[in-house]
Amino acid sequence: MGAGGPRRGVGPPDGGWGWMVLAACFVITGFAYGFPKAVSVFFRSLMRDFGAGYSDTAWVSSIMLAMLYGTGPVSSVLVTRFGCRPVMLAGGLLAAAGMILASFARRLLELYLTAGVLTGLGLALNFQPSLIMLGLYFERRRPLANGLAAAGSPVFLSALSPLGQVLLERFGWRGGFLLFGGLLLHCCACGAPPRGRARRRLLDVAVCTDRAFVVYVVTKFLMALGLFVPAILLVNYAKDAGVPDTDAAFLLSIVGFVDIVARPACGALAGLPRLRPHVPYLFSLALLANGLTDLCSARARSYGALVAFCVAFGLSYGMVGALQFEVLMAAVGAPRFPSALGLVLLVEAVAVLIGPPSAGRLVDALKNYEIIFYLAGSEVALSGVFMAAATYCCLRKQPRSPGATAGAATEGAASDTEDTEAEGDSEPLPAGTEEPGGLQALEMRSPRAGSVGAEVEAEAVCVAHWARQAGG
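RESULT FIELD:
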């Protein structure tokens, strides 16, 4: 397997063994996003056995999601220190152990600590390294790879929920948790293909001074406040509108089916040479479309109108899921991506803990879903407008110097996908080189059409350099 990984000085293979890494990332993404939601099928049995209310039982999934997002910096430090493979293997064991121990729980507190904390931490230790390795194995085809990997979320959610229901009916919630724990051991197998570690600092907080990163963090915070709210409230909203229970539950399936198609399709679209330099604007468009969908559907009451909402929401939601990490990778570059991702997930955890719970409390207090859809749509639409405006006004004016271009080329060629100590054919990185971020980095990484395009670009850089010398 080591021979299949990219070598230092060669660059991402954009295929080959990278497809195995992509398959592993697909599975990990599916478990990370689908598993906390699939566990909810056991809630009624847990409420009955423990004599607890719905809100107390739902904390199992909430803690799991909080660990998935909130332990991002911890995962960044561990990946930088030990490498992706050991961290992913340990994460798979922790996730499985959490569900297996939860099957013996006698109190809700024990479920919080096992299924919530242990399994959530294990999923986090799998999710972040898989995204890091995906960025190191793909460059030209990275938007498509991100879209295909992101499709794991709706696919696994569509599969795990029915599977959980079958296990519950046949073995009870304890047997279901035990078998789910065995299923999570597949995360260990997914940790086998990638190797290598991400190098700089253990947690490069200096990335917070990058304007592109700051813009992205603010965008993600605003987005996370409202993005997940409509999907969470959709079924109950439809039932209150008089839709039968079966038809109301089918609305989420419509969102899932459209989402499955939208993610890889959007990834392929974003990889086109003409569009790839403008991926931040495409991401902004997806956010704006999602927000406007919420706003326009706030008064939808008929089943046909709700179906139309689900199709539009699934399409825009899939676009957001396919592009969100591609934009971050392009903004900060591969060397700083581990630290940037950890910090982004930490900020997103705060927003996730504020948005959906606040929406639920507003519904209980106001008995009105319309206001919630207006608030959620406004927050997501605002995030899209902010992303586009900040990219246009701030990031597009960053100077593009020949020195930065050379540094980026050197850094990109020396992808940190192998341990330096274990490889004899590697060259040390030049001191002081740093990969540029923001729209400048995205433009530099966009594929060029043949050698003629490369010559034109090189000539333009030289002319700009001479002009600066003459002006100086």
